[in-house]
Amino acid sequence: MPWDQFKEKFKTVEYDSGYGGQGLASDLIVFLKDGCWLERHEYDGAEWWELKGKIVKNVQGKPFKVIQDELRWDILKEMNKGI
Q1: Distance between CA 44 and CA 48 in Å, rounded?
Q2: Most buried residue among 24, 30, 53, 68 by CB atoms closer than 10 A?
Q3: How far apart are CA 27 and CA 3, in angstroms?
Q4: What strands, in cross-sheet order, belong to the sheet with 29-31?
């Protein structure tokens, strides 16, 4: 989804990259205008964003409404089941 739409839809989400339970979907990817992207990673309770190189193939995205879930689902597909 476009960044402006994402920003508005998830403006109440508070992200904490510190130690503890996973806060956001592990497969959430942010694509940048220059062809690079940010991926989330987690290790031993800590999580962070990692900048990746340019996309080399066409990626078909799917719409979603949830990136953070109190049930602590791991991936967007599970968090957005039935939406």
Answers
A1: 12
A2: 24
A3: 17
A4: 29-31, 37-43, 46-52
Q: Which domain holds residue 38?
A: 3-79
The C-alpha atoms of residue 76 and residue 6 are separated, in whole angstroms, by 14
CB 2 within 8 A of CB 9: no
**Total count of domains within the chain:** 1
pLDDT band at 64 (very low <50, low <70, confident <90, very high): confident
Contact 50, 39 (CB under 8 A): yes
Q: 0.70 exceeded by the pTM?
A: no
Q: Give how far the C-alpha of residue 25 lies from the chain's centroid of Cα atoms, to the nearest Å.
A: 5
**d(C-alpha 81, C-alpha 73), whole Å:** 11
Q: Read off the tokens for 48.
A: 């962070």
Q: Are 37 and 55 in contact (CB under 8 A)?
A: yes
pLDDT in tens, 37-59: 999 888 777 788 899 987 566 66
